[in-house]
Design goal:
single chain; 104 residues; mainly alpha; 3 helices
Length: 104
């Protein structure tokens, strides 16, 4: 699995988790008036789970940002140390994109 595939999968997971959190919050709001010991206990567990999920997503966002910054630093360092290599890579990438565009 490539790094870009992992990043895409992670982004999709975060998006899905945010949707689940939103749905769960709506469900909790809809059952606000419901009474009973079991419902109260279930609501309390759900609220705690939602708080934990929100915190984990916030932490994951921080991790992703730190990884992106580190990758940018490494790319900058590589380009500074190997300017002609970077030019060659950019030229090949441009050629590939050009060929792909020309085929359409």
């Amino acid at each position: 699995m490539t790094q870009s595939t992992m990043i895409d999968a992670r982004d999709q997971l975060v998006t899905d988790m945010k949707a689940v959190i939103t749905d769960a919050e709506e469900l909790l709001k809809a059952t606000t008036g419901a009474t009973g010991e079991r419902i109260s206990a279930a609501r309390a567990r759900a609220e705690e789970t939602l708080r934990n999920a929100r915190q984990k997503i916030a932490n994951l966002d921080d991790v992703v940002m730190n990884q992106a910054k580190e990758a940018a630093k490494q790319a900058d360092s590589y380009v500074r140390e190997n300017p002609w290599g970077a030019v060659g890579i950019a030229a090949v990438a441009g050629l590939v994109v050009g060929v792909m565009i020309a085929r359409k």
